[in-house]
Amino acid sequence: MMAGESKLANGPGAGLTGGADQAQDGSGNGRQDGSGNTAGEGLELSGVNKVYQARRGEVTALSDVNLHIRSREFISLVGRSGCGKTTLLRILAGLEAPSSGTVRADGLDVWSGTRRGGEALAKFGVVFQEANLFPWYTVQENVVLPLKLRGAGKAERRAEAERLCALVGLGGFENAYPRELSGGMRQRAAIARALSYQPSVLLMDEPFGALDALTRDKMNLELQSIHAASGATIVFVTHSISEAVFLADRVVLLTPRPGRIRSVTPVAFERPRSLDTQSNGDFQQVVRALRHELDEES
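The chain above was modelled as a monomer; its predicted structure follows.
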């Protein structure tokens, strides 16, 4: 399948596992995809539904979401406001229960119906749009707070803080306070803190949405390096189609009310990608195709 070719859903659950580059039978019984991962590895969402009770009756936020995300893959979730992107991310993070369906990480249950599996949740780190750093802690103290809560010693925390700050481009700022940092630097610190859990999956909910365009471009370049160095699977929510395509291995487009997966678009541009990639004709074609699909949903 060529870059930018979408596999459209033809009904509930159809076309939700990407393209021909990914063989998956939905059973999790050891079938391999093109990356060499078995179907039990990575993230597996099966029949995920989310229904809220409102004054006017039930509101279906997500309907029959089925998706396999390979280990170390970068997935972007895009769609109009209210299509369920953040709800889906919160379900993956264990912060919100699905009404039905299962979510598994490397074969372990995150959710089986409304029952949460604790062991699998240790695999996740989460970065939100706001950095949510403690203002009275330094960068180093914020970054390794999860390690402190787990009982790690000072020497271990200091070494890990130095490693993570260097990874996200904050070397030399370990002793700075959040008020002394730019918005982009605060988000780097938030990413470093999420990585201190040593997650196999990093969930990111519009982490660069509040940044100016130049800083956002720089953070997108940095995130590619972080992804390569950390080896984590990343699920990235954004409203920007260009950002989604630039970062992702596959772009998942959600329909609004209820949130269903309309298409999964493979992105085959070589890595690392530069800002010049965005001016490439093939890149722009992928963006236009996704924007056309999004317009069809309005």
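The first helix runs from residue 85 to 92.
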